[in-house]
Amino acid sequence: MTLQIQGLHHVTAIASSPQANSDFFTRTLGLRRVKKTVNFDDPGTYHLYYGDEQGTPGSVMTYFPFRNIGQGRPGIGEVGETAFSVPKGTLAFWKDRLLAQNVQGLVETETFGEKRLRFLGPDGDGLALTEVDGDLRKSWTGRVAEAEAVRGFRGATLRLRDEGATGELLRFMGYDRIGTDDGVTRYGIQGNGADIVDIETLPGAEHAEQGAGSVHHIAFAVPDRAAQAEVRKALIDTGYQVTPPIDRDYFWAIYFRTPGGVLFEVATDEPGFDRDEPLAQLGQSLKLPTQHEHLRPRIEAHLSPIKD
Known about the structure:
The chain is an alpha+beta fold. It is about 15% helix and about 35% strand.
C-alpha cells in the first residue's frame, strides 16, 4: 500500500504576542496572513495562519499566541527548526534584511549541499531560510519581490534521542532515507515542495518543554478525506493510536504521537482557506468556528486587536 502523503501541510507553533507574531511573519518574512481565527479548544486565543497567496499546503506556518505563556525550553521530542525555501543566490539579501530588522541568532551554514541562514523568531523560534534551486512554487509578493520571496517550506528538523523508530515511521509514510550529514539524517519525498524531514539525534539532551517559541505539532498533507482515511487505517493497523477525523474548517485533521514524542497531524488539502472569505481578503476579518460564532461579542472583547 502506498500512502498518499504529499509532504508537509503546515507547522503549528506557540507565541506570546499576536501583534509581534503577525508583524514578524508578514513584515519581516513577507508571508501573507491567510487566516485570523481562534483556537478551537480555547476561543479566547487567536489562531493565526501565514503562507503564500492562498495558503497552499506546504507553505503555511500557524501560531497559537497564548497570553502569559512562559518561554519554551528546547530539547528532544520536538520540531527544533522549521526551514523555508528561498531562491538560489538570495541569502545575502535575506541576511541584510533580517539584520536591518534586528532579527537575532543569524548563523550561515550548509547542510546536504544547501546553503542555509538560521535565525530566531520573536519568541526564540528555531527558523531557517534554505536556498533551493528550481523551486517553482509561486510566492506571495506583498512585501518582498518575487525574485527573493519565500516559496513555502523546505522542511523541518525533528530533535530526537535516537532516529530508529521515527525513521521507520517516516519510511512507512513514503519518505526515503537520503543520508546523514553532521549528525543529521535526512528523509525526503517527491511531493508539494515541502519535501524534507531531518532528524537530529541528541542522545544526552533533556526533553523539550513547550512554551513560547515551541512547535506544537507538524502536519503532513494528503489530497482529500479518502486518502486521509487510508492513512489513518494504515497507521492504526501498524499500532498507532490515531484520533478520528476532526473538522478544522479549512482542512480535516487526524493526530497521533510519534515514538520520539512529536505530535504528527495528517491534514487534507480541502476545502482551503477561501471557504469563508474571498481570496483577495484572506486573513483580514476574524473568522470563528461555527460552534463559537454565538460567542463573537465576548471573544472580540477579549482578543487584543491586531494592526496590519
